[in-house]
Design brief:
The complex is a heterodimer of chains A (270) and B (216). Chain A contains eight helices and ten strands. Chain A has 270 residues and is α/β, with parallel strands linked by helices. In chain A, α3 packs antiparallel against α4, α3 runs parallel beside α5 and α5 runs parallel beside α6. The longest helix of chain A has 29 residues. Chain A is globular. The two termini of chain A are 39 Å apart. Chain B is mostly helical and 216 residues long. Helices cover 81% and strands 0% of the residues of chain B. Chain B has eight helices and no strands. In chain B, α1 packs antiparallel against α7, α5 runs antiparallel to α6 and α7 packs antiparallel against α8. The model of chain B has no long low-confidence stretch (mean pLDDT 93). The chains are: A alpha/beta (270), B mainly alpha (216). Chains A and B meet through β6, α3 and α5 of A and α5 and α6 of B.
């Protein structure tokens, strides 16, 4: 059964139709890359998956449960469903006033606070506060240990107390990845992770994503860089003018079936 | 009248200047935040009313607004006049509230949309994203224009003399007209320069304190 399933997704901005009948499935633990020229609709598709944009039509299901269908979603549903997706933004969007560790821990702390609040609502008022504090303390300790491990694995331990202003592009990127992974999303999404990075950093980002692949992280990567896409993809979607023109496994880079993808790949080579 | 007498007399007036400044500054900042929130409401009618209000307040002299607040309730509606100090405070607070609101609005709108989107993706609600992420960045962005307005506010308190409030310039004018010594008027500049120097120093310190990050 498909882990993520998208059926007949469409989106228009005014009269301009930017996504038309998008349908695809992806398996758990795989890496899906969405490739295509600028304006092909790949960014809008990713933004709809992450609830940063509303769709016009279509159904999105995760683990066989509809998470974005015909029903109007309340803000609370959106917040809940959005937690399935972690997003590493193109420009990282780190919070500049917080250190690396604070950037990562702040959303975790807020989530723990909410979890503690909801968990003990049934307790009598006199016991509630104590229970919440004890629970939060324990959860926070667990999370700090997990984040410590991630910082070490991503070679960021020495930067934990640095502010985003003093980070290199690669360090900011890795901080953004850990921050997105902090809330344990089911799917980790990357928006143009290599754009505006020099070749050395591009290779570094690819290594990071390959490391995540080894740990069976389910990932969706939007990119227009073919060499990078070839290295990381299990599954590929090629988009043009808001439509999926071709999709398949990594072999479509070598043997494209459509002229459009063939032309796109040859343009990239040239 | 010797130098010490003049200084003591001017210090009395300067006390009122300082009081006016502190009260109006403390009240106009939150009022500016309120006006800013109203300006950001996406409603055609609210926006029209707000634009009209801003147009009137920015388009007329503060001196006239002080006179209106002090005299109009009595003249038009036969209501008891405000206390002079209260009238000046109301006029200045509304006037500067509008200017501050425009500064806050520009600061808020200049924050990269990506910051709010990152907050959404990280499970924060609107309140958390504003108070924990956006607000400090807006503060950082608005300190330089806010410093300018703060210094203007100190100088604009001198307009209070239009309804006979004995602030430092009026105190000096009284001495000039009674004792015919003109240097007293120029001497008031020292008081303004000291207060504005101190404020510039403090605001600069705050700016320095926030230099560790770059607002997006």
């Amino acid at each position: 059964m498909a882990f993520l399933q998208v059926n007949d997704l469409s989106k228009s901005f005014g009269t301009s139709e930017v996504l038309k009948d998008i349908s695809f499935t992806m398996e758990k633990g795989k890496t899906l890359t969405i490739i295509g020229n600028s304006g092909s609709g790949k960014t809008t598709l990713l933004r709809i998956l992450c609830y940063l944009e509303n769709k016009n039509n279509g159904i999105i299901s995760l683990e066989e449960k509809i998470i974005n269908g015909d029903k109007t979603l309340y803000q609370s549903d959106v917040s809940e469903n959005r937690r399935n997706f972690g997003l590493v933004f193109q420009s990282f969007n780190l919070f500049p006033q917080y250190t690396v560790l604070e950037n990562i821990m702040l959303p975790i702390k807020l989530a723990i606070k909410k979890e503690a609040h909801d968990k003990f609502l049934n307790l009598p008022l006199s016991k509630r506060r104590k229970a919440r504090i004890a629970f939060s303390k324990q959860r926070l300790q667990e999370e700090e240990e997990r984040i410590d491990g991630l910082l070490q694995r991503m070679n960021l331990s020495s930067k934990r107390n640095s502010y985003p202003l003093s980070l290199s592009g690669g360090e900011a990127q890795r901080t953004s990845i850990i921050r997105a992974m902090g809330l344990k999303p089911k799917i980790l999404c990357f928006h143009e992770p290599t754009s505006a990075l020099d070749p050395k950093l591009k290779s570094e980002v690819a290594e990071t994503i390959l490391k995540l692949k080894e740990q069976n992280t389910t990932m969706i990567v939007v990119t227009h860089e073919m060499e990078f896409a070839k290295r990381i993809s299990d599954q590929v979607i090629y988009m043009e003018n808001g439509r999926i023109v071709e999709q398949g496994d990594n072999s479509i880079f070598e043997n494209p079936k459509t002229n459009e993808l063939n032309n796109f790949l040859s343009m990239e080579v040239n | 009248m010797n130098f010490t007498d003049v200084t003591l007399e001017l210090l009395n007036g300067f006390g009122i200047t300082c009081l006016l400044f502190i009260v109006t500054w403390i009240l106009s900042i939150p009022l500016g935040a309120v006006f800013c929130s109203v300006s950001l409401i996406k409603n055609k009618y609210v926006n029209m009313i707000m634009h009209g209000f801003i147009w009137i307040i920015r388009g007329t002299p503060l001196m006239l607004q002080i006179i209106v607040v002090f005299y109009v309730p009595g003249l038009l509606f036969n209501l008891p006049a405000f206390d002079r100090m209260v009238a000046v405070i109301i006029a200045i607070v509304i006037n500067y509230g509008v200017y501050f609101s425009e500064i806050f609005r520009a600061g808020y709108e200049s924050i990269d949309k990506g910051q709010s989107e990152a907050c959404k993706m990280l499970g924060m609600n609107r309140r958390q994203s504003f108070f924990r992420i956006i607000l400090l960045q807006v503060v950082k962005k608005t300190i330089p224009p806010l410093s300018n307005e703060t210094i203007s506010l100190v100088k604009d308190t001198a307009l209070a003399r239009v309804i006979a409030i004995n602030e430092v310039i009026m105190a000096a004018q009284k001495i000039v007209s009674t004792y015919a010594i003109i240097w007293v008027l120029f001497y008031t500049a020292v008081f303004y320069l000291v207060l504005n120097g101190l404020l510039s120093f403090l605001l600069h310190k705050l700016e320095d304190k926030l230099k560790y990050f770059e607002a997006k």
